[in-house]
Design a protein that fits this description.
mainly alpha; extended; about 70% helix; 4 helices
């Protein structure tokens, strides 16, 4: 008989599975972005898909995906972890960072 996992082990296992699913989703999204001429369509389709999600989830997405991404790009700019392919994104994130630095978006 299989040994039961502790609560902490169950949480770790759940987190690993979530991380794998998210990586798969991002890989699929970036595969679509990588198809030449598809970039703007992908942006439009993602924006449209988000528009029809529950408004609480829209805010949750912005708070937990968009804002941390901006902060991470700004940090990479500070650390010089960019090249010509993503320099402008990192530079823009650095300009936006002061506006979003201490933003709190409530979960309603």
């Amino acid at each position: 008989m299989a040994e039961e996992l502790t609560w902490e082990e169950q949480v770790e296992q759940s987190d690993r599975k979530c991380k794998e699913r998210i990586k798969d989703i991002i890989d699929k999204l970036f595969t679509e972005l990588n198809r030449m001429g598809n970039e703007r369509k992908v942006g439009e389709f993602v924006t449209e898909a988000i528009r029809y999600q529950h408004r609480t989830l829209q805010q949750n997405y912005f708070s937990n995906v968009i804002l941390p991404s901006i902060k991470d790009f700004a940090k990479r700019y500070d650390e010089g972890q960019f090249d010509l392919r993503n320099e402008e994104s990192c530079k823009l994130a650095k300009k936006i960072e002061p506006v979003v630095k201490d933003v709190y978006l409530p979960f309603i």
